[in-house]
User: Fold these one by one.
Assistant:
Number 1:
Amino acid sequence: MSQAPLLLRVLSGETTQRPPVWFMRQAGRHLPEYRALRAKAPDFVSFCLNPEMAAEATLQPMRRYPFDASIVFADILLIPKALGQDVRFETGEGPRLGALPSIESMRERTADAGAALAVVGETLARVREALEPERALIGFCGAPWTVATYMLDGEGREDRASARRFAYERPEQVDALLDVLVEASAHYLAMQARSGAQALKIFESWAEGLPDQLFERLVIRPHAKLVARLRELGVETPLIGFPRGAAASAEKYAAAVPVQAVALDTACPLEVGKRVQAKVAIQGALDPLLLRAGGPELDARVEELIEAWGKGPYVFNLGHGILPDTPIPHVEQVLKRITGAGSR
Amino acid sequence: MSQAPLLLRVLSGETTQRPPVWFMRQAGRHLPEYRALRAKAPDFVSFCLNPEMAAEATLQPMRRYPFDASIVFADILLIPKALGQDVRFETGEGPRLGALPSIESMRERTADAGAALAVVGETLARVREALEPERALIGFCGAPWTVATYMLDGEGREDRASARRFAYERPEQVDALLDVLVEASAHYLAMQARSGAQALKIFESWAEGLPDQLFERLVIRPHAKLVARLRELGVETPLIGFPRGAAASAEKYAAAVPVQAVALDTACPLEVGKRVQAKVAIQGALDPLLLRAGGPELDARVEELIEAWGKGPYVFNLGHGILPDTPIPHVEQVLKRITGAGSR
């Protein structure tokens, strides 16, 4: 096959005969082989930073399922770590971050963020080496605001209230932190592109709940800066932006941030997706809870998504990460419907 | 003054010279007089069900501030209580609900839900008696799905995942529960209208995260049924629907549910609000975190909202409840800008 991987064709604006498919968190706890591998590492950060283990985790779903794309196994909180903030994952508790370093000390580290996380590049290189050429490899980072919410909160609270409060009450500090994160993320993504990533995804997991002016300031502006900075650094890799929880602002986002695809979340209405697709490729948005539930309703929704969005450039995916207790046959059921085969 | 209260004029489709204004949770913990009153009741449910105390709580912000409307002090979880489910509020923990009664036993109680909660009617009557005629009195209920999430979860978890899971995995049970809640809420709201409520608000606090088919099934359909049932019961009172967290579906909601106003949340973009306003009156959507932060940015956003939405039928409000640690001068700052006076 001389053609580019299906995912890359869609990211270049092509409408393909069937959508390429991959699932957020496809590498992870829903797979017994992942749980066995993960048990061998002392903690989650060590696991992410071990290229052999992280590459193996990345490849596990690719061996089992006919996914069209692979996403490097890593975590959005490696960036704060590279900037000098302590990051720990307490079992069953989520992340806990140490005191926020000074803006100055973090700014000094931004240009080296790629080098500091070179192990992620090594993971990518190993995966690219092992993966068939028709299957694409995706790199990623957390978007500046999402990473900032963890850095400011010290942990992952559901409503991000204290980070949003800071955004109002200490705007200079928050904007300076976002600029640091833009710069560090640009170098981190550039390193990933050099190491074999063929597409890069920017995960804005906490775009929800933001009024117009904050969405503009905390999401659109930093994403646009990050894209511009990447292009300045010579990175031509296609980009997927994921402003999760902000379906009402997805069109505005697509118009303002020059990404090649906008990923849509579970709650994005079909008609909103179509309007976004008039501008760029889209990705999404099967409900992980429906995937877990399975049954004929799952088939019906898969059909509905393909019917509504498959007539334009479309990457089939979930609207949020796959749930750890998702039955493997349900994943196979969806993949069979899309690719003709549930497993490899 | 012979004119109808400003709120009711807007709910009849009129564009008023300035928007009427009230704040979600205006009666509550941000007021020292509320905290003193609340301390006199043994627990939150007893407080809500004591008409003297609840009326006093309702009236406290009306004495202090020039709000155009008052909303009865009550709780959305009085309905499960009226249907026979145990409801407790643990201090600092949120609500805890007992085992879900059988659908049959709850169905038998629906017609009496108004009578079972007659104390809320007594609160309304007391408030209506004390309130100036140019200030409107609002009654409310939780929307069926939102109330169902608490009844199914047994508590208020952030992501409603187990309730959404039930919606997929036990659709008959969830749909039957929604029907019971539609019927009970219709009788409850009808009783409130008879007791002096001049507008009724349906709070869908958990409309977020729902894909098309669930939004249709869990939000639009039960709301439309509830409105139809209220009209069948002879209630002509104007209705405000609040599908919180679903700004991307607000237009669809406004087209499908015949309410007189749609309340919009903090994250609703200005342009989406304008599109909804082409169909019905709108209410919202100042960020409570910005109200708490105060300063010139608060003034700027108030101006922006009035500029964008004040040219059509518009009720000024927050996009979510006022936060307990909101400084009173910030509330006065907003009210002064809108009504010309910060306090009474």
Number 2:
Amino acid sequence: MLRLTFLGTSASIPTVERSLPAISLRGKEHYLWDCGEGAQRQMMRYRVGFGSIKAIFISHLHLDHFLGIYGLIETLRLSSSSVQQLKIFAPKRFEELLINKWDFLEVQEIKPGLLLKDSEASISAFRVVHSKESFGFIYAEHEKIKFHEAKAHGLGLRGAMFKEIQEKGHVKIGGKKILLEDVSWKKPGLKVVYSGDCVSCKSTINAAKGADLLIHEATFGSGFEKEAIERNHSTAKQAAQLAKEAGAKKLILTHLSGRYKDAKSLLDEAQKIFPNTSIAEDGLNIELR
Amino acid sequence: MLRLTFLGTSASIPTVERSLPAISLRGKEHYLWDCGEGAQRQMMRYRVGFGSIKAIFISHLHLDHFLGIYGLIETLRLSSSSVQQLKIFAPKRFEELLINKWDFLEVQEIKPGLLLKDSEASISAFRVVHSKESFGFIYAEHEKIKFHEAKAHGLGLRGAMFKEIQEKGHVKIGGKKILLEDVSWKKPGLKVVYSGDCVSCKSTINAAKGADLLIHEATFGSGFEKEAIERNHSTAKQAAQLAKEAGAKKLILTHLSGRYKDAKSLLDEAQKIFPNTSIAEDGLNIELR
């Protein structure tokens, strides 16, 4: 199971209703995608424990996507006598911007591809078109091996043999070799994709292929296509077209310009193209299984 | 008139109820004392316009007192095509920490004494004992000249002569010299003093002499005197004793540790010594005349 909490959903400038970008992902481990100003207080407000965060992923080096990391670092340092290692994955040169560097921090430059793997899932980055070094992220649970239990038992598999066959790919029972693929099938894991800030681009389509959930920016709505292109952002409609093309199962729009007090117009234009669309708001919790 | 708005009243770490230190002062001009993380959003929440800020004063270089300045700078830059000059008064080395430096910013190192003067008031700094370079601030309205109107009219003062006598100190009417002090009195201006973070110290007593309002930190309450000394902070009782000794008219306690969910115990211990004490909370508005 993966729990997502939207901690901030505004673009560039916060509003009274929307804080700056940050998404908490709690599966086996706890991660953050982006960490805008105020993220630590949003975590308190929405009861997302911050002491457990294993890694933070910064999509690009615009201040609204990473300023909150400084305050969070101080709070971790001050509020615990035994603060755990915290990894920060960020674009090139983030370390020069880190004004409070402590031993428990480990900064790693983002390059496209696999960034991190835990026992349940991996997180990878892909390039998107926005500012110089801008990335989107993929959270992908590992495939799980599921046994055709009746068949496996019928062939004599018992107890520890299930572990053995998963490790070796086969077991021998009474001189007969039984292959893993003969008694099992692979259940795909959840896949959640986050666009970061970007124009609607091919790399996001590729990344989002068959995703259970695509979280895409929608800074603008219809009528602002020119601004969206000029500033390397997307409209709600473009995000919906992308989700459709990628065959994603669900789309959540975030990173809304402050001009959309009521996001219904964005929702309407997106749902015409991709019906299973929602608009993120601060505190929105999603549980995926 | 001076309007004060407490934008953040927590110490070191924010809570759901209290954001990090920042106080808006709106007299003739608009100033900020400290600018903790989230200050810009607090200004939106409490309807304190941020486009009008002329100067920000950072009491010391602990992150909880200045992180909000980065986000505020970005918002000023993005939200207006003609952003006005913004002065930042901060302790030595702040400029090295400023990751987003723009032409409209002017950073000035704080040294004790007068920092700024507008047509209505001046702001000065005084050293306090906390971290290496730590300051408190004094907002002092200029004295106003008030005329004994009947007397002045009786001596023949009319129209433009009131301006002339204020500028020269005297006017001549029918060959007779009339001195300003004979027809006027000086009305002292408002004085508001902010301690920043500090142990209870002599310099704050001196600064707060006869102040209309003393805003003093009260990170701790009774029973934490040892911690207060170790960490160079004050207890509510110590702040009250200081206010009494200085002869301040009113005391507001701020910068409360997160352990005081209900600040009543702090209020009680302070009011026993200095009855005209209040506890600041986020959004508290004070109008002084």
Number 3:
Amino acid sequence: MAKKDTSKSALRTQKGVSVSEITNNASIKQLKQKRKTQLKTDALIQQILEGNITALSRAITLVESTNVKHLKDAQTIVKLCLPHANKAIRIGITGVPGVGKSTFIEVFGKHLTSLGKKVAVLAVDPSSSLTKGSILGDKTRMEDLVKDKNAYIRPSASGEALGGVAHKTRETITLCEAAGFDVILIETVGVGQSETAVHSMVDFFLLLKLAGAGDELQGIKRGIIEMADAIIINKADGDNVKKAKLAKLEFNRALHMYPLKDSLWQPKVSICSAIEQKGLTDIWDMICDFEKLTKANGYFQQHRSNQNKFWVLQTIENQLKSDFFNTPKVKIALKKELERIANHETTAFAAASYLLNLK
Amino acid sequence: MAKKDTSKSALRTQKGVSVSEITNNASIKQLKQKRKTQLKTDALIQQILEGNITALSRAITLVESTNVKHLKDAQTIVKLCLPHANKAIRIGITGVPGVGKSTFIEVFGKHLTSLGKKVAVLAVDPSSSLTKGSILGDKTRMEDLVKDKNAYIRPSASGEALGGVAHKTRETITLCEAAGFDVILIETVGVGQSETAVHSMVDFFLLLKLAGAGDELQGIKRGIIEMADAIIINKADGDNVKKAKLAKLEFNRALHMYPLKDSLWQPKVSICSAIEQKGLTDIWDMICDFEKLTKANGYFQQHRSNQNKFWVLQTIENQLKSDFFNTPKVKIALKKELERIANHETTAFAAASYLLNLK
């Protein structure tokens, strides 16, 4: 290389600098920069694999960044972490506000670390930008777990679009798994679309409920019960114990009315007191039973593979739709066609065909 | 016009025919043909509006045709029937094979015609091409209803793609309504995707069940129970009466566990013997109650408007996806990317982004 540089200096100009030298200097600088970035990325990945929490947090920040350069680095890091990920069990936790999700996650997380597990807690909450606060934002609600060196709590990724938040959460799971976490708990509120997204990225889906009088399932979005692998009746302490036991019976009956799941897992109902720390062993044992059953019958692996396929297709479909429906011409015409349908001037299919021909 | 033709004849060639004369003759012929088609179409529409069954059948055949010319005529007919449609109540009927759908529809249909209603029976069964027979194909199973002059039975539209079958069924509903039918019964098998499609084109969705021992809801696809506005326990005759009453209790309990529907309608359970013709009045009364409630609270109209919007968007989305995923380049690359994901070489999101850039 040195020899080549010397020969090139024959082209030196009056000002003492050759064109190729400038180019060389620039590309050397670029190369150096690239090398530096790569070294930084390599070092970060190495630290993540060693379980360094600071490195993990930095990588997640890159994943969550909207800066194009950061996103490119993030993609490289996630890609290189992939072969080291995929080993944890991913548990989704949902329930309406007030059901005690944070307290449950804190005591359940502590229970798991006491068993020697490394636990990461994430959240999917696309509405956080509206409610001016993410569901895990108030870390003081989990003050014991926060101090636990085997636990890692990451407040929810911000973002308006659920697709974007889900994307970031999926990549964060990969990073946490590469960092050696055994259990990933993903919290979501039981309203809106987020629990469907979370259901599509976890192995086990857990619905928290309170024991109360009357219609136990009121207030939950339709379809969530069918998604649940377990219903946990929380706050089963003091005067609530009897009510919780009754609710357990009712839910069990309801769950048995459903057709068997593809996993061949019969969803279960458990009661739990997060405050009195009761029922935690049962819940973890149940999840282990689920893992054992579904790994033996092949569902666990198949399900993860289906989830990957789902996210590929889902991401593409969302992009195709967004490209189409955000075209100004289409936006205006769609509104008009819907009015024409309402006035019985056209059918849904004629309108669709007309709109498709606009682009 | 005649004058113009005469002046043009000055350009007459040696052979005695001018170029413009040929053109004129051709366009006159075209015009005549167009006029003839329009007359035929107008006559057909007039006959449909008069309730002529032969004309209705001919129009439905045009809707179901794959011939481009027929489809164009069909579109015109459906469009001109639209202002006269939209007046019937549309009832979806589903249940696993063996539950007695055909017998139920026959006696329920006869019950409705005895009340002075005109009843059309359609079917959505996209799998008919596979099972070598459509669910309503065997008209002998409804031999009484077939002979009833106030009933019209149309076997399922054939077709491999559910989207296409649904499209044809929706347009057939319009034609039947324009022909003055008051009740449209749409039968579908309770497996696969067809009941979701039917649910999206009816006002009231009815699930037929048998009373049996054990888990009553086994064998039905997940989600169907949540769709149902009523569960009818069929074959409640002889020794089955007691079992049916027990099943009614169980289902009622299960239905009450669900959150309230947007329609504010509390789904109901009814028992029925199609053979002994018992319970039919209750079922029709229930549907009338539903119609009254939802027309009063505005849900009925809103729901139909939402269904129209759903079909516009659904048709567009299906076309966008089909255009994208049927590109040979994408097909090959998708397969490869899914393999790369399985080998932990790429993420779902990186794969999606790569595939989107292919087109």
Number 4:
Amino acid sequence: MNLILICIGKTEQKEIDSLINIYKNRLIHYCDFSMIEIPKLKNKKTSIIEQKNKEGELIEKHLKNDDLIVLLDEKGKKYSSKEFSFFLNKILISGSKRIVFVVGGPYGFSKHILLKYKNQISLSEMTFPHQLIRLFFIEQLYRGFTILKNHPYHN
Amino acid sequence: MNLILICIGKTEQKEIDSLINIYKNRLIHYCDFSMIEIPKLKNKKTSIIEQKNKEGELIEKHLKNDDLIVLLDEKGKKYSSKEFSFFLNKILISGSKRIVFVVGGPYGFSKHILLKYKNQISLSEMTFPHQLIRLFFIEQLYRGFTILKNHPYHN
């Protein structure tokens, strides 16, 4: 089974990239994890709505019909780490070949995307930079597996 | 007015340290911010309760009677970023010379500390490494000021 994290834009700060790699290397023990960084839009004159729509189209190009898709959105369901591990278990045993988590761009997702993909989770009530969200998420994903497997957490 | 963040242990990963410094440098424009990193306990044989009690004693050595103290604890009140900026405003106009935010050690706070300091906030339902919490918090502090001042957020 493949777990995929789709994000908009390259991880700009090398420090975030390096921290993400620490968790990526730990995740190897639990799943086949990969990240897809969709290049961010270059035309800076587009409106926020247009930007979100275009980002949505680019995201959908990477999705397959039978993917299990989970959006990371501020308005999504909030879980404790333990509850998230149960959610993770539920999707792991769903039979889907690919589980795709998606972090939106700087302004979040388009209406189309939000209406189409109903699995939506939120890491916090608070708004964080979309670049940091990928770090928070990958840490929780790793934590989720350690909870499920009852392994000590490498802090 | 001084805003202080007390944490247990040095920031171990240089990447986290470097990201924290980015936000520290931005905070200069809004407040006098500093961090106190209390050296972590060396005796590895202490129980979790003893460790939390000792960490509590070390934290209290850095506190003054008229400090306004806010604990960052999982069970604390959860705010959206906007609500947190209102909370920030409330404590900024409280008249306290020092506002002290405290992140506990790897196991959180002792009972004594939790019972004594009633201002408790939480950044997420989820559990994050205490080393990452300091990064998340400082980002939210910066974001809180930009919301209060109606400044664009430097993402």
